[in-house]
Amino acid sequence: MEVTQQQAPQNTGWIEVVAGCMFSGKTEELIRRLRRAQIARQKVLIFKPRIDNRYSSNQIVSHNTQSLESIVIDKAEDILLHAKDAQVIGIDEVQFFDMSIVGICNKLADEGKRVIVAGLDQDYRGVPFEPVPQLLSVAEYITKTLAICVVCGNPADRTQRKIANADRVVVGAADSYEARCRKCHYIPD
Fold first, then answer.
1. 148 C-beta neighbours (distance < 10 Å), count
2. How many whole angstroms separate alpha carbon 167 and alpha carbon 8?
3. Which of the residues 2, 93, 130, 140 is marked catalytic?
4. d(CA 168, CA 42)
5. pTM of the model
6. C-alpha 41: how far from chain center
7. Domains and CATH numbers, the chain
8. Edge to edge, what strands does the sheet with 114-120 contain?
9. Among this protein's residues, is 2 annotated catalytic?
10. 3-state DSSP call for residue 106?
């Protein structure tokens, strides 16, 4: 749900979460919202975890190649070092941060900032991917994005890992993952 001026809280901050599977347009939606804030001449800061270097080392980049300059950080606490004067904070690939990101997002919202995060809500096994579920519970606005299942064409809300690796976090794109629906998703051995 897009937050319009009529719906936007007044004299307070808030948290928006854009969650879904890979290839569902999460980063594209984050970029769209951040660009609109920039057009409105708001002070926008964008953060990404250093681990996500798939398309660029210093930009958030959607799978359809839209991009925005970002600040690359190693840990969630680094956001607080930069965010003092920002009105709008964007955080991509939020699932790569530890649980401290929840408190940091709350702190920023409590300071009157609009905080927009995007991330996977489930891992490749279909298990909730922390800290996204916790962010969903404290967010004022939630958008669930869906992709298209590459097997049957149904709406997809799962990320299918195509490579053999049991680690929960394996950074990759179309070479390693694809979108699947509930029926076509399976947990690899």
1. 15
2. 40
3. 93
4. 36
5. 0.89
6. 23
7. 14-145 (3.40.50.300)
8. 71-73, 44-49, 88-91, 114-120, 14-20, 141-145
9. no
10. helix
